[in-house]
């Protein structure tokens, strides 16, 4: 029996990954990390979706220790989300070590469940600001987990080379475009669905959706060529 653990935030990307996993694996478990996000709606959204999509289990892990250490616009209400990059070239929503911590914990959960894969919606195509979303990081992390736990563990990144329009096509491929559009939370201002419409996450999401809706057949063909 095939088993996977999906790192699940309740956003567009991880929800699309979860839906795909439910179509590809016999047993799918979801794990959501509570690190004191700006908006606890994110956790509530993930909980609701996990229930609705009928995952085998949904774990919400308290990792607020990350919030204590890592200072970012996503972990401090006093820091507004900026469209400008910081002096080090990273967006101010970057949370240092976040994916290192999340993938380590998801890897431990996979180990306990006997799952062969950990699936994460990271992507380096569209939003290249985060170093811990790069393919080279994922490969290094997989190697660290496999060596550290002395077993095979695949870190699967279905969205790594997709742009946002193609990610929408992937949701549509599994007849879930409306679910992802209306029920997921990507907005940095904590508004479900199409969001506030002005933060960087909303702009990226809306542009991708428009690009997909403008040329459904074309984008779907690009997606099929990549998967
Ligand atoms: Zn927004």
Automatic annotation (TrEMBL):
Annotated cofactor note: Binds 1 zinc ion per subunit.
Pfam families found in the cross-reference section: QueC
EC class of the enzyme, as a word: ligase
Residues that bind Zn(2+): 187, 196, 199, 202
Organism: Shewanella insulae
Keyword Glycosyltransferase in annotation: no
Binding site for ATP: 8-18
Function: Catalyzes the ATP-dependent conversion of 7-carboxy-7-deazaguanine (CDG) to 7-cyano-7-deazaguanine (preQ(0)).
Family the entry assigns: Belongs to the QueC family.
Pathway entry: Purine metabolism; 7-cyano-7-deazaguanine biosynthesis
Protein name per its UniProtKB record: 7-cyano-7-deazaguanine synthase
UniProt GO molecular function: ATP binding; ligase activity, forming carbon-nitrogen bonds; zinc ion binding
Cofactors required: Zn(2+)
Upper lineage: Bacteria, Pseudomonadati, Pseudomonadota, Gammaproteobacteria, Alteromonadales
Catalytic activity: 7-carboxy-7-carbaguanine + NH4(+) + 2 ATP = 7-cyano-7-carbaguanine + 2 AMP + 2 diphosphate + 2 H(+)
GO BP: any one term: tRNA queuosine(34) biosynthetic process
Enzyme Commission identifier(s): 6.3.4.20
Keywords: ATP-binding, Ligase, Metal-binding, Nucleotide-binding, Queuosine biosynthesis, Zinc
